Write a sequence for this structure.
């Protein structure tokens, strides 16, 4: 009698269920975190009459806290498991969102956004990329890109629902409802998470043969060694700048458009921008495992610079919408590409340590984004100057990531 083959190939590899869990987690985290910050900025300013610059500074604290927490995410997942990390993240995110509705003094807004920052660190791209790293080798890029499509879905659904909820229910009830949704989805979802495929008797990518070719050739990097490499520093510099520009833009997007399109129109354009980001992510997921991610990053950042330059001079609603959508095409890929480049150039063995360090450095730059736009807005009385400077910074980021190619490996060590 012949030996019966394992039934695993006939079913769905559990790693793709992990990707699905990452997709849902990203949808909630981006809805109430990154995209939600733009809504909170406008809603709190309108409700309390506080200046944009003050609230932008509080949002900066959100990103600073997240940045400093990022290097510890991988360690926490190894020691406590992804279930514990996601549960803590859900509780912090829910508490932060709910507390925004109760703010009546300026200092309280810092508590809300610091708590949000802890939740965001536990649920954002660093956490999701680390969660998926053990599960895939050949399809690592596709897995991360697919999971982070949830970020775009968060913008498509989250922003309009938040704006609508605040208009219909008021700030307090809407933020409480959002927090309840966060907890009711993420806490049960955490029970599906597993640390690594080997614990279930599986191999990465659902392989049934020996491990991926070339794995024995992979170099192990320490954090100190990585920081000395230009390939690492170019990733940090380029995406630190790109994230500063992007997060600042997303935080101020509603406030920028509201005078031209009204609150309803602004929220609709934010949702459409998220749709554009979703389409960009689909293209990335399809082709990233066969393309040079640095060349792709250069193109993405160049397109983003063009959209921002147009927004700096745009006055007509049509031009504003078109430029927002153009920039939106790049939003999702800027979020996804750093982890893919690190995975490609530093391998799977060193991914957690190297990407955690890169994420912290990038996050520190990211934290300056809301204040960058907010301070310039207050100084110049509008968004023209911050938008044109943001376009110039994005162009610089494109040049830096391209120059880093000189130190990057010419072959992919983890892909057959």
């Amino acid at each position: 009698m012949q030996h019966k083959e394992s039934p695993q190939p006939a079913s769905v590899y559990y790693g793709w269920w992990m990707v699905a869990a990452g997709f849902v987690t990203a949808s909630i985290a981006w809805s109430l975190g990154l995209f939600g910050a733009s809504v909170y900025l406008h809603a709190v300013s309108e409700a309390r009459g506080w200046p944009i610059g003050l609230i932008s500074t509080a949002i900066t604290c959100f990103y600073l806290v997240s940045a400093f927490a990022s290097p510890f995410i991988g360690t926490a997942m190894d020691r406590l498991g992804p279930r514990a990390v996601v549960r803590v993240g859900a509780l912090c995110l829910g508490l932060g969102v709910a507390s925004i509705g109760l703010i009546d003094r300026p200092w309280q807004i810092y508590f809300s956004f610091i708590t949000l920052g802890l939740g965001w660190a536990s649920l954002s791209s660093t956490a999701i990329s680390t969660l998926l790293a053990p599960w895939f080798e050949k399809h690592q890029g596709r897995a991360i890109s697919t999971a982070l499509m949830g970020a775009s879905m968060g913008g498509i659904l989250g922003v309009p629902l938040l704006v609508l909820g605040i208009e219909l229910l008021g700030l307090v009830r809407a933020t409480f409802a959002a927090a309840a949704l966060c907890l009711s989805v993420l806490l049960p979802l955490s029970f599906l998470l597993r640390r690594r495929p080997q614990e279930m008797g599986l191999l990465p990518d659902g392989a049934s043969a020996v491990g991926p070719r070339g794995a024995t050739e992979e170099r192990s990097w320490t954090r100190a060694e990585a920081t000395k490499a230009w390939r690492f520093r170019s990733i940090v510099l380029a995406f630190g700048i790109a994230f500063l520009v992007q997060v600042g833009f997303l935080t101020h997007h509603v406030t920028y458009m509201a005078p031209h399109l009204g609150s309803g129109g602004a929220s609709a354009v934010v949702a459409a921008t998220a749709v554009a980001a979703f389409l960009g992510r689909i293209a990335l997921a399809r082709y990233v495992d066969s393309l040079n991610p640095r060349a792709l990053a250069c193109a993405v950042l160049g397109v983003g610079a063009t959209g921002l330059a147009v927004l700096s001079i745009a006055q007509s609603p049509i031009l504003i919408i078109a430029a927002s959508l153009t920039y939106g095409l790049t939003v999702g890929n800027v979020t996804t590409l750093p982890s893919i480049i690190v995975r490609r150039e530093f391998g799977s063995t060193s991914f957690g340590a190297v990407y955690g360090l890169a994420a912290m450095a990038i996050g520190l730059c990211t934290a300056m984004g809301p204040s960058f736009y907010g301070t310039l807005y207050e100084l110049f009385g509008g968004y023209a100057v911050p938008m044109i400077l943001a376009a110039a910074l994005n162009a610089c980021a494109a040049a830096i990531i391209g120059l880093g190619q000189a130190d990057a490996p010419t072959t992919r060590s983890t892909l057959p």
The longest helix spans residues 230-287.
